[in-house]
């Protein structure tokens, strides 16, 4: 990963009901990246008719998610967009288990199995896996349905909505978290360059 100058961290947002997972990548853990991810997730939701006042974001107490004295970071960003934000209590690790499950699955099914010869190959494979995860991968914890099947069923039940996303996510509970990217299951914590992008 380092030799190819690939991102070191995965930022994950998971919608609890459907299991829909949205992922961003970066070279470092920072409030800037979590804020950008929240904006990149929220904007399309609003465009599709989701009332962001009915969306709740839940994060752990990692420094990249905390709001300092100044109103910056993910909590301030989602509140400015109209959503609610909740930190989990300290040491309440199971409250993030839904998104931690995604990290484990991505590690086992993607990073431990794939090799990357170039940044272009990494992005192509990461994009393909994201589509697979949300569109085709059956989820045992969701009655062996994919996120697409769950959202499609909700759309059929509320077909008066103008947008499939708006029909499904009339309210949503997102759990956000970060995870180091570890190729082939090897945990590496090198010094992290101060440049990067989602």
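^ structure tokens above, recovered residues below v
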């Amino acid at each position: 990963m380092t030799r190819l100058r690939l991102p070191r961290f995965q930022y994950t947002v998971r919608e609890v009901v459907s299991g829909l997972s949205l992922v961003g990548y970066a070279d470092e853990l920072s409030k800037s990246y979590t804020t950008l991810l929240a904006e990149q997730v929220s904007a399309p939701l609003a465009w599709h008719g989701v009332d962001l006042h009915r969306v709740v974001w839940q994060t752990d107490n990692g420094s990249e998610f905390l709001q300092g004295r100044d109103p910056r970071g993910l909590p301030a960003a989602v509140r400015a967009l109209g959503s609610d934000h909740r930190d989990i209590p300290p040491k309440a690790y199971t409250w993030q288990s839904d998104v931690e499950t995604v990290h484990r699955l991505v590690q086992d099914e993607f990073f431990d199995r794939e090799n990357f010869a170039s940044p272009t190959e990494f992005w192509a494979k990461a994009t393909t896996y994201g589509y697979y995860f949300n569109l085709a991968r059956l989820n045992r914890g969701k009655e062996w349905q994919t996120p697409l099947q769950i959202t499609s069923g909700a759309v059929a039940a509320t077909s008066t909505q103008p947008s499939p996303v708006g029909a499904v996510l009339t309210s949503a509970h997102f759990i956000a978290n970060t995870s180091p990217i570890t190729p082939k299951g090897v945990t590496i914590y090198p010094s992290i360059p101060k440049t990067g992008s989602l």
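Helices lie at 31-47, 74-80, 97-111, 119-135, 147-157, 164-168.
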